[in-house]
Structures are given as structure tokens and as C-alpha cells.
């Protein structure tokens, strides 16, 4: 499988090593500065872990070449997500804000348990990441938020400051940044005299890379469509 990787940062470089070890032919790591080099060739699959500013030219490229796309970049706005969804009408697009198995399972679990808890428990999300991360809150925190509030029934309270008053029908989302933390996400259910807390800790980026490579193998050769970790877990 001929693969192009968009992004030359922490994820891009680790992806290249792992993809090559799995026998994929990596034609290169690309960024906005050298996109012309990619436009001159075709690949079967593009893996993007870079920055949302690359989204438009990457979409143009996969649409022209019919390559499949595994997309992991976070910090997308609603319009960006719509563009990706629209691309999946002509291309196979695999999308996840977090390619670890642990977060895929946690997302599934909290979808199931939230309806049992939300009447009596307040819900909050806390994420912690390294000091180089550009977006906040993390894409995963937003994915977990969507899982606990699929109908948008709560106010989404991004941090709190000042005389905020008593808690309303809201979900708090909090971002911590520092050091080299690969990523930690907690979903808290806070009730009368009891707290239920689920925490996922990534102790290395390799888990995201392994998940993205699995997603690449899963989506390669599939017909146009939108593919997720949930689909891949079903097999
Ligand atoms: N879905 C998942 O499981 C995971 C997703 N991610 C996401 O992947 C992305 C990359 O993460 P990571 O490798 O750690 O980040 P890095 O900062 O290490 O690398 C980012 C890459 O994007 C490029 N870039 C930065 N800003 C711009 C810009 N404005 N326009 C075009 N290119 C740009 C950088 O180039 P330069 O160095 O020249 O600025 C670099 O090549 C992030 O969005 C992160 O949240 C990360 C881990 C897991
Ligand atoms: O930037 C990172 O590092 C990570 N980004 C993703 C996110 O925003 O959720 C996934 C993971 O937490 C690491």
C-alpha cells in the first residue's frame, strides 16, 4: 500500500516508522510547504495528523486521486467537519479524534451509562496534555462531550471563572496543559455523596499511531463512506 503522511511533527514521524515496519510504502511526509511534491504522484491512502490549515488541499488531493483518508488532526471547526463528511461521499474517510482502543471503548461505555446517571449526577470532563498542544479543549474531550450529550441538551461550560453562581444544567469541560503528558481524559459523574470517575491515560503516542495504522488497513480498499473506531471495533 502506497501511503502519504501529512504532518512532519511528533505524530507524523512516529507514523512513518510504524507504517514502514508494517510493510507499507511511505512515499513521504508532507506539509503545506511541500504539497507540490505530493500533487505529482498518486497514493492509495493519506494519513493526516497535522493542522486544520492543511485540510482544504488534502481534501482536493484525495478527491482528485480517489485515495482513502485516515484523518486524526484535531482543532477542527464545524465547517471543517462538514467538509470531511462531504468528502466521504466520494472517498473512504476514517475519522477519529482519538485512535486509542481505550478511548474507543470509553466512548461506547459512557454512551450506555449516561442515561442511567444524568438525572441525579452532574457531569464534567477534564483533559490533560503536553505543553506543545495547540488546540483546547482536545478533540477527544469534544468527542466525549458529544457522547454524553448527543442531543445538545446541556450548556457546555468551557472552564469557569468569577462569580459563576450555582451550577445550572451544564457540563464543564476543563483543559490542563503541561510537561510531556501524551494525553489524559476523565469523565466525572458527581452525585450526592458519591462520585463515579472514568480516566484514560495515554502513556505514549504509540497507541494513537498503532490505532491509525489499524484504521489504514481497515479502510484501505473500502468503498466511499464515513468510517469510525466504532465500525472498526465491530470488525
Ligand atoms: N486523533 C488522534 O488519535 C490524535 C490526534 N493528534 C492530533 O494530530 C495533530 C498533530 O499532532 P502532533 O504531531 O503532536 O503535532 P506537532 O505540532 O508535533 O506537528 C504538527 C504538524 O503540523 C504542521 N503545522 C503546524 N501548524 C500548521 C499550519 N498552520 N499550517 C500547516 N501545517 C501546520 C507542523 O509543521 P511545523 O512544525 O512546520 O509547524 C507539523 O508538521 C494535532 O491536531 C493533534 O491534536 C495527536 C495525537 C493523537
Ligand atoms: O495533541 C495531542 O497530543 C493529542 N490530541 C488528540 C486530541 O486532541 O484529543 C488525541 C490525544 O489526546 C493526543
- Average pLDDT across residues? 97
Q: What is the strand content?
A: 25-35%
The CATH superfamily of the largest domain appears as: NAD(P)-binding Rossmann-like Domain
Largest sheet: 6 strands, parallel
The CATH class of the largest domain, by name, is: Alpha Beta
Number of domains: 2
Estimate percent helicity: 25-40%
Structural class: alpha/beta
Per the principal axes of the C-alpha atoms, what is the gross shape? elongated
GO molecular function: 4-hydroxy-tetrahydrodipicolinate reductase; NAD binding; NADP binding; oxidoreductase activity, acting on CH or CH2 groups, NAD or NADP as acceptor
Keywords: Amino-acid biosynthesis, Cytoplasm, Diaminopimelate biosynthesis, Lysine biosynthesis, NAD, NADP, Oxidoreductase
Binding site for (S)-2,3,4,5-tetrahydrodipicolinate: 130, 139-140
Subcellular location: Cytoplasm
Tell me what you see in this structure.
The protein has 235 residues and is α/β, with parallel strands linked by helices. The protein has 2 domains: 127 residues, 3-Layer(aba) Sandwich (Rossmann fold), CATH 3.40.50.720; 102 residues, Dihydrodipicolinate Reductase, domain 2 (2-Layer Sandwich). Helices cover 36% and strands 27% of the residues. The protein has 8 helices and 11 strands. The strands form 2 sheets. It has a 6-stranded parallel sheet, with helices on both faces. The chain has a 5-stranded mixed sheet with strand order 7-8-6-9-10, covered by helices on one side. Helix 1 links the parallel strand 1 and strand 2. Helix 3 packs parallel to helix 4 and helix 5 packs parallel to helix 6. The radius of gyration is 19 Å and the shape is elongated. The two termini are 20 Å apart. The site of the ligand O=C(O)C1=N[C@H](C(=O)O)C[C@H](O)C1 has 9 residues, from helix 6.
